[in-house]
Write a structure and sequence with these properties.
Layout (H helix, E strand, L loop, with lengths): L7 H7 L12 E2 L8 H19 L4 H15 L2 H9 L8 H22 L7 E4 L4 E2 L5 E8 L5 E11 L2 E9 L6 H31 L6
Antiparallel strand pairs: 1-3, 2-4, 3-4, 4-5, 5-6
Helix pairs in contact: 2-3, 3-5, 5-6
Length: 215
């Protein structure tokens, strides 16, 4: 797979996230503006460590526990979930909102662990420049791969929050967001079975991704 080719496995890696396709990018960030890259760099380090553990056949549950804190620090999962659910979020009972937040977090972590499960000398390179959007978000581009080998380009849309910069989207190939599919899937389930159906679906996906080791 070339850096510009997005295969099914890459798409699966990105199915956990997505808020919007990229609007017009106004300018490149200077080096002094690059604080948004720090969470991306930390998450990349954690992802490589998890991949190494996968190659050493560390149990899925342990790799899940390794990566979960890094995802909590790097991603604004609450915003991602709210936007993915859409206006119906505010109509859900508090208990269902809490259950969805837990199920979505578990699904997000499990998806990364399952799809980045082996290490063959890969490293993550982060672009020295961020792309700034009119909204104030910054897009941090990364390349995961081995020298001269296959590589995967991922771009993280970072947004300033009260807890620092957080990712609100991941873009395959630097531009392809999975938000439309996720929104469609979530809202279809909500329409047919309400919040409980979406919770059950996410829990089932976690079980499948983990080979049954996580419910």
């Amino acid at each position: 797979m070339t850096a510009s080719t997005i295969d099914r496995r890459t798409a699966l890696r990105l199915g956990v996230l997505g808020i919007a396709t990229l609007p017009f990018v106004s300018r490149l960030a200077s080096a002094s503006d690059m604080s948004a890259a720090a969470p991306v760099r930390s998450f990349g380090d954690a992802l490589i460590a998890t991949m190494r553990a996968g190659s050493q056949r560390v149990p899925f549950s342990q790799r899940f526990a390794m990566l979960a804190p890094a995802i909590d620090r790097a991603f604004d999962l609450e915003t991602i979930l709210r936007v993915s659910v859409g206006p119906q979020w505010s109509t859900l009972p508090a208990g269902q909102q809490a259950a969805l937040a837990t199920a979505f977090r578990n699904y997000t972590v499990a998806n990364f662990v399952a799809n980045f499960d082996s290490y063959n000398g890969q490293s993550i390179q982060i672009s020295p420049e961020a792309r700034l959007q009119p909204s104030g978000d910054q897009v941090i581009s990364t390349r995961l791969g081995t020298p001269g080998g296959e590589s995967t380009v991922l771009a993280y849309v970072m947004r300033p929050t009260s807890a620092g910069w957080k990712a609100v989207d991941v873009l395959a190939g630097g531009s392809i967001s999975r938000v439309a599919t996720q929104r469609s899937d979530f809202r279809s389930l909500l329409a047919s079975g309400g919040g409980s159906a979406l919770v059950a679906s996410l829990q089932n996906k976690v079980s499948v991704l983990s080979g049954g080791s996580l419910a």
